[in-house]
Amino acid sequence: MEQFWEFLSFSEPNIRYVTFGSILLCGSAAVVGSFIFLKKKALVGDAVAHAVLPGVCLGFLLAGNKNPVLLVTGAFVTGWLSLVAIDYISAKSKIKEDTAIGLILSVFFGIGILLLTYIQHSGNAAQSGLDHFLFGKAAAMVSSDLNVFSGIAFMLIIAVVLFFKEFTLISFDIDFAKTIGFPVRRLELVLTTLTVLAIVAGIQAIGVVLMAAILITPAAAARFWTDNLKKMVFLSAAFGGVSGFAGAFISYAAPAMPTGPWIVMVISVIALFSFFFAPQKGIVMKLISRKKMENQIREENILKLLFQLGQKDGNYFQQRSVNEILAKRPFKPKQLISGLARLKKQGFLENGDGRWKFTRAGQKKGARMVKLHRLWEVYLTRYLRIASDHVHEDAETIEHIITPDLEAKLEKLLEYPVKDPHQSDIPYL
Amino acid sequence: MIQQVEDPAVEVHDLTVTYHKKPVLWDIDLTLPKGAIIGIIGPNGAGKSTLIKAIMNLIPHGSGYVKIFNRDIDEVRDKVSYVPQKESVDWDFPASVMDVVLMGRYAKLGLFKRPRKADKEVALDCLKKVGMDAYKSRQIAQLSGGQQQRVFLARALAQEADIYFMDEPFAGVDAATETAIIELLREMSEKGKTVVVIHHDIQSAMEYFNWIVLLNMRLVASGPTAQTLIPSLLEETYGGKLTLLAEVGNLMQKTEFTGRDKR
Q: Does residue A185 sit at the B interface (CB-CB below 8 Å)?
């Protein structure tokens, strides 16, 4: 904990740089990644991330040291080459794109590892730390690296802001973009270049192996929270930034740990949380609203049943025991009791010594349910020509989703019928 | 029955389109009149979409050329609107109805410029014309098939073009949408716009179109509806592929035959 506060105080200028750098790198990668995600090119991103490794090694071999400009240039060249190779193979041969991606990823990464091993055994003292490019080490970035990487990250964000409309169009409907005369090929070239650059900028902090995660996962997580593209890109950047921040802290607190996996852990937790808890789209929220619906249906069924019993006996406000209700309709006893309790809380029922009866409001709601059920039966027999002995099942479900608006329309359309197809009275309260 | 017209909206000259070396359209040569509602009709796999895409220059021509208003397509892009099949895009994309219709203004805006207030008003107006103005803020994933088609149509209207190419606008839409669309097409034609529509149903084609193109890998007919939608020509169109033509096509694919391709 103490360590965390010390980290947060940013007393060491290097911590400041590294933290700021990581946030910017991850955030900008997430912004560019949003369009990769929308274009459904996630796997291509992964292949390019792996394919920059041989470039990094070649850059090192050329420079003889870890000159960031040469490393970045090398990475950029092989990253690009891998993209061209994937496109060429899938366009010109019988090999499909997924196979081409798999091939290119492994070939380039394999060559990268070969070169890395060669460099590590070459006896060049400057090579120490080059293996950080595999899994990332944010704290290993010195200010000259940071200048280069942050410069790239800034440029990425500016480019996406500038090309926002164009990237949106080519992600949604590329044929339409071509027909209105947009330079689609060049726009795709720009987006591809930005992708490669985002990967190149991030490899020091995250590493080539896991770079694809920071490109794609923030966008996937953000998609759960919004249907608005601008908001999605913002959220994606924020998620990326948070994981970058976490990565910087870990890198500082536990120097032996590689940063990449930790950044990926953090962004994955954010993604998992979104997957389960995002409003509307999250799985848990969907389950909760389904449960609510089930409860509502059960409550309405109880009220409907009590009203039917009242109609039969001519006394709507008679107290009835749980067994009496169960004898009429086989609810699950536990669910019936919890439903009765909820209805009491809502003010539709009252109870005394284990027996239940309507309040005025409850009677009215019960009457409405019976009315909707019977109106729907009338509608089905009249307008869909369904036999009267076939309409009950359908009405059992439909009665719960008819809105007051539809209710009024139904009444008017059917001209307020008094009897349902089974000659039972339709109550209007 | 292939009738040519003077001063055509579209001229397709001896166009052959190949897919992986195999010709899918053979020597199409036709002219289409201005201001007409034109139906392109033929069986599945006849190359109807391919023809439109080739006219729009979305796929390369094997040989031949296309002129629109007597110009190269790239010179008149602002006068041409293309409505792709609605299945060609992912409707789960994070965009609203308004966002999609505004895309119809992008050509007029050019690169890097944001839609202006005037563009939004045009877009809203176009949404009104297709009866979708109440849905302008709706997420596109929530639309029905018919509504998706109307949105695509509104986007096309927002382009304010002179000629419209529509790929199966009546596929998978409800009857009300179909009526609304054909009404709109008639209105456009009255204003002198040319509308080219890929269509499946011969019954309604009689009533919808005043010019018909019958297609089955080769051009069977092109002319006024009354003279083209006749049993003998329909039989020729739907009576199956010409087996010799298909065999030659397969042979060209197998032998990597390159004589036809330009480059």
A: no
